[in-house]
Amino acid sequence: MANVGRSDTHCTTGLDKLLPPGPTSSLPPPPRTPVREIRESRRQPKPTSFLRNKPPGSSSDYPSSSRRRIQLQRLGLKPNFHQLDVSDINSINTFRDYLQNKYGGLDVLINNAAIAYKHSAPEPFGEQAENTQRVNYFNLLDVCHSLFPLLRPHARVVNVSSSMGHLTKIPDQEIRNKFASSSLTEEELSELVNQFIRLAKKGEHTKYGWPDNSYSVSKVAVSALTIIQQRAFDQDSREDLVVNSVHPGYVKTDMTGGAGYFTTERGAEAPVYLALLGPNISSPKGSYVWHDKKIVDWVHGPVPEAV
C-alpha cells in the first residue's frame, strides 16, 4: 500500500510535562497492519510514553526514533520502546496491562494515528474507505475502550481530527443531523461509518449524500466520537476527565508528502495545549478546537481557513 500516508499518536502517563510529538472493530484485519511504537520516559515523578504509528508497508522508523531518543536524552529523559499493533486487540490489551502493571494508570492520551490515501492511489475507493475507517476510527475506538479504564482523575484525552473532520464536510443534511444528534451513541456512530463503507463498496456513497473522501468521513467520525466520549466522562465517577478533538493545521509530515504550512512543532501546539489543560476547567470540553486553540462550532461553523 505504497500510496498511503500516515500521522502519529502519543500517550503519556504524566501531566506535568509533554514534549511536542513527531512528523487510532468490527471490520476484518487489513492485509498489512499499521504498527505503533511506544516511547516511554522513566523520569520522576511520572514517566511519559509516546505512541508512534507506522503505516502499512512503510520502512523501519528506527533511525528517526533513534535521533529523537537522543533529543529526549538531552532533556534528561530516558525513553524506551514498547511495540503495539493497533489492529490486534490482543496487542492493545497487552499494552494496557503493561501500563497498568508498570505505572498504575494514565494521565494523557493523544490519539493521532491515521492513514490517508493519496489521489494517485490505485486501490478501489471501497477498499480505501474500509481501510481508512478501520485505522482512523475503529482502531482508535479499540484503543480507547482498552485504555480509558486506566485514566486517572483529571486525565486529558486529545483526539486529533482535521479541518476535513468538520461536520459541514458531509453533503447531506439528514446524515449531518444524525452525526450532530445529542443522543448519538457509539454504536449508532459506528453504524453510520459502516453504512458509508457499504455504500462506498457499491460505488453509491455520493448518491446517498456522503463525500467522495474517505479520510474526511473518518475524521468527522472522530470529531463526533469526541462529543460522545465527553458525555460519558461527565457521568464518570472519576473526577474531571476531559476529551477534545483538534485540527492541528496543515503540517509537513509523511502523510502530506512533506507539503504543509506548519512544522511538526507548530502542529503540536494545540494538541499539547489540550493535553495540559488545568484541573477542573469548564471549557474546552468535548469541543472541536482549531490549531490556534480557539473552539470552532463543529455543527454550524463558520469553518476558519484550513491552514
UniProtKB/TrEMBL annotation:
A Pfam entry, by short name: adh_short
InterPro entries: NAD(P)-bd_dom_sf, Sc_DH/Rdtase_CS, SDR_fam
Segments crossing the lipid bilayer: none
Region (Disordered): 1-68
PANTHER family: CARBONYL REDUCTASE (NADPH) (PTHR43963:SF4), CARBONYL REDUCTASE 1-RELATED (PTHR43963)
GO terms for MF: carbonyl reductase (NADPH) activity
Start-end of Low complexity biased regions: 55-65
Domain of life: Eukaryota
Name this protein carries in UniProt: Carbonyl reductase
Protein species of origin: Timema douglasi (Walking stick)
Compositional bias (Pro residues): 20-33
